[in-house]
Each structure stands twice: as C-alpha cells, then as structure tokens.
C-alpha cells in the first residue's frame, strides 16, 4: 500500500475518533454539510476535514408583554377621632391620588360621597399639572387666597375634568385633588368616598388625528370614619388636665423614658406619627397659639 495513502487513512481515522468524542452529534440534515474526502489526494488540508462553521443563529425575539400599564386612582381613608356632639361638624380633608400613571391626555372622573358629608372645597393637586383642570359646575367661587382652590357646596356625585392642552401625555403621579368635607359628629360611622370613570373617560391620544386609547385604571375607595374619642387631646399623662406636665411627659416618651402615657393622645398634630413635631405642637397649644391638637 502506498505510504502516503497509509498516512492519509491514519489521519482520517484519528480525526474521526476525536470528532466522535468532542464534537456535538450532527443532525441528519447536517450530514450534507460535511465535505467528502478525496483519499487519492496526496495532501489533505486540515480545514477541509473540519466541520463546517455553523451559521450564526438569528437573534431570538423576546416575548413582548403588553406595554400598557394600569394606573391606580385611590381615595384616602381618614379617621376622625372626636367627641360625639349632635350639633357639631368637623372639617376633614380627603386626598384623591394617582400612581403608576402610564400617560394621560384627558381624564373625566366621577366622585361620589355619602350622605352626611358636605363638600365645601376642592384644591387641585400636583398630578396631571400640564392638563387644564375644570371645576365642577356646582362650584362658582374661587378662593381669593389660592387660585387652585374652588369653594361652594355640592351634592354627590361631582365631575372632575382634566383636558390635554398639548399632545404630550402627562405621566405625573401624586395628589390629583384634595376634597374638603364638613362631617357630622353626631355618631360614630363611616362615610364612603369613591372615584370612578366610564369607558373612554381616561385616555391617551392626539387631538390632531383623533386617535385615542383608553388608559386602564383600577380604583380604590376610601372615606371618613368618625370614631368617638375616649381621651382629652393633649392630656398625655391622663390626669384630666393639659399643661406643661403633659409636654414633659411627651418628650420623655419620645426619648424612650419609662413613663406612663395615654397612647391615643400622643399624636398631637394628627400626622399619624409621634415625634418632636407633636411636642412642639403641644407647647404651642399650651402657650395659646392658634393651633389645633388631636
């Protein structure tokens, strides 16, 4: 046998064994890509017997989820802790807020509230600030000290409207409006406040070509809960009086001294937190500043 032929056969067999061990198995359709060896040739290029380079895989398209984001419009829930008095009302603010805003060009909200609530003022918030806000028809008077507040008296429901004055959707989040109610303190109870919108009431689109898309929104209702107060506001030590001793007891509590306090009376400023601001508010009250304590 020709020596060159022997060498060729030896090389081919060796490479075949290596390919069997290290290379991934070839699919049947790949067999056509493997070059046929001409064993009669005196020289064989290593490149000629190597597997053909695989074609670069086409990029896999990522699955695109629905890009539409659901906005959330929430009515605040507020607790009014008060002494129950049949002929008395208290003024309470309830915030209407938006979050996860994907972009809105126009918005028409219907706000409903329970009997026993008197809506007396609406203050526009910072959200949707680039849109034009239209006050409800029942409100004809503007607050001379605040151009973003309208005052009057309205019955439920009312409509709040934001209109696009540009073609750019507004994506801002935060407070849409603050609603100020007079609340009866005759008895304990919860007064519901809710917001809603009809189909097409909240949208994103262009006024130029009249193409509008509904913005999906979820709504969370809130309201005002009247709760009978079982403590005297500012009476931190529970002795039935409000004086400097209460301010001292409150500061000691804030500094984690082991003092006995009336837990319900600690949040003097009604912020939902107990901190130095409560001590300052209590001192102002004791010094007869015109401040309210809770």
Short synopsis of the structure:
The protein is α+β, with helices and mostly antiparallel strands and 294 residues long. The chain is built from 4 helices and 15 strands.
What is the straight-line distance between the termini?
110 Å
Strand content: 25-35%
Inertia-based shape: globular
Q: How would a crystallographer describe the biggest sheet?
A: 8 strands, mixed
CATH architecture of the largest domain: Sandwich
The total strand number stands at: 15
Instruction: Classify the secondary structure makeup into a structural class.
Output: alpha+beta
Q: What helical percentage do the residues reach?
A: 10-25%
Low-confidence stretches: 21-32, 39-50, 58-66
Order of helices and strands: HHEEEEEEEEEEEEEEEHH
Annotation keywords:
single chain; 294 residues; alpha+beta; Immunoglobulin-like; Type 1 dockerin domain; 7-stranded mixed sheet; 4 helices; globular
Describe the structure.
With 294 residues, the chain is α+β, with helices and mostly antiparallel strands. It has three domains: 3-49, no CATH class; 71-228, Immunoglobulin-like (Sandwich), CATH 2.60.40.680; 231-294, Orthogonal Bundle (Type 1 dockerin domain), CATH 1.10.1330.10. It is 16% helix and 34% strand. The protein is built from four helices and 15 strands. Strands 2, 4, 6, 9, 11, 12, 13 and 15 form an eight-stranded mixed β-sheet that branches. A seven-stranded mixed β-sheet has the order 7-8-5-10-3-1-14, with no helix packed on it. Helix 3 (244-254) packs antiparallel against helix 4 (276-286). The chain is globular and about 85 Å long. Mean pLDDT is 80; it is low at 21-32, 39-50 and 58-66.
